[in-house]
Amino acid sequence: MTAPLLDVRDLHKAFDVSAPLVARLLSGQGRRTLRAVDGIDFAIPAGGTLALVGESGCGKSTVARCVAGLVPPTAGSVLYRGAPIAEVRRAGSPLRHEIQMIFQDPYGSLNPRWRVGRTVADPILALGLAPSRAEVRDRVAKILEDVGLSPADAEKYPHQFSGGQRQRIAVARALAAAPALIVCDEPTSALDVSVQAQILNLMKDLQAAHGLTYLFISHNLAVVDHMADRVAVMYLGRIVETADRDTLFARPAHPYTRTLMGSALGLGDVGRRREVPKGEVPNPIDPPPGCTFHPRCPHATALCRTEAPALRAFGGGRVACHHAETLG
Ligand SMILES: Nc1ncnc2c1ncn2[C@@H]1O[C@H](COP(=O)(O)OP(=O)(O)O)[C@@H](O)[C@H]1O
Ligand code: SF4
Ligand SMILES: [Mg+2]
Fold first, then answer.
1. Tens digits of per-residue pLDDT, 178-207?
2. Is residue 1 part of a domain?
3. Any idea what the CATH number is for the domain that residue 172 is in?
């Protein structure tokens, strides 16, 4: 087997969320830690798409930021082409440009004072990917066409575009850096329903054309079904189920995955409001003992309330549930 492009092992990220020192001294309270990511493993082969899915607050963006080298993990490792991510992302590293990110809010990730042409040319110039000004211009024009914009759009500013077009610009900027891995954090969640599917299809076409690898993050199972070839379901900082897309959607094993599916709509409805699973996500500063899903789980037993289930092989994938066998 060839080595995966991205290999994440036992990743932990904790945040110190203690009150200020004086307040702690007055209240006698100790330091408090929030385990946003609590020991997760996954790997993505070159050209593959792994989707991370789960409700808001389960740690998806924190994983994205660790993978992109924007924040250091508390423990565990992120290996890109076998090298630690801190090395890969170091200024001057020849692999640095290969990892790009696309965020939910394209407006926030584009410089409003730069014309689109400059935004897209910037990585081309920084990386020396085109030897002359004319070739930089040609390359920008080609990339804009590749993402469904026109070469003339290079002269405009971000505010002159719609939300969907701005996300196309963000994709163009990522593509301009000649990436291999793109970390997509809820890339279409802020867009109108009709536009979401267009952007998702564009991203799939670009993946095929450029052999891209995606870590694709979404809270929306319909989007995940459309994009992923492998899925990892997160709950309170852990992966509770992982399988290839077809297996997961045909036979979801974890009660949480089933709850999410019960509330999902089809891709035609990707932007519609949907019912969220019953009950609230517990506070990750003070997670429930045992299986952290037990307060919301209709199948919870005494064992679930005291012992955390390990992620183990089950039904073609992996699941962290004591009772997966008996749930049918
Ligand atoms: N910089 C930070 N400091 C403290 N807590 C944080 C920080 N970033 C994220 N968190 C917390 O970590 C948890 C996971 O957040 P996040 O990774 O953004 O989840 P998601 O993307 O799935 O919504 C949340 O409880 C969030 O409040
Ligand atoms: S371990 Fe128990 S509480 Fe957790 S998902 Fe399985 S049945 Fe539900
Ligand atoms: Mg997020």
1. 999 999 999 998 898 889 999 999 999 999
2. no
3. 3.40.50.300
Do residues 99 and 159 make contact, with C-beta atoms less than 8 angstroms apart?
Answer: no
Q: Which residues are registered as beta bridge partners of 215?
A: 50, 183
Per-residue pLDDT for 148 more than 90?
A: yes
Cβ atoms of 125 and 136 closer than 8 Å: yes
CA 86 to chain centroid, in Å, comes to 19
Q: Whose CA is nearest to atom 6 of ligand 1?
A: 15
| Domain assignment of residue 142, given as a range | 6-327
Q: Residue 325: is its pLDDT beyond 80?
A: yes
Does ligand 1 have an atom closer than 6 angstroms to the CB of 61?
Answer: yes
Query: 235, 238, 254, 323: which to mutate for ligand 2, most atoms within 8 A of CB?
Result: 323
The structural domain count of the chain equals 1
CB-ligand 1 contact for 104 (6 Å cutoff):
no
pLDDT computed for residue 273 by the predictor:
47
Sheet holding 49-53, edge to edge: 99-102, 181-185, 213-218, 49-53, 230-235, 238-244, 317-319, 312-314
Choose one of 62, 185, 218, 239 to mutate for the ligand 1 pocket test, by most ligand atoms within 8 angstroms of C-beta.
62
Q: Looking up tokens 């924007």, which residue turns up?
A: 70
Distances in whole angstroms, Cα of residue 41 to Cα of each of 37, 45, 116, 285: 11, 14, 38, 22
The answer to whether residue 272 sits within a structural domain is yes
Whole-angstrom Cα distance, residue 125 to residue 140?
11
Going by CA atoms, what residue is nearest to atom 16 of ligand 1? 59
* Residue written as token pair 């290079």: 154
Q: Is residue 126 part of a domain?
A: yes
pLDDT score recorded for residue 275: 46
Cα(36) to ligand 1 centroid in Å equals: 6
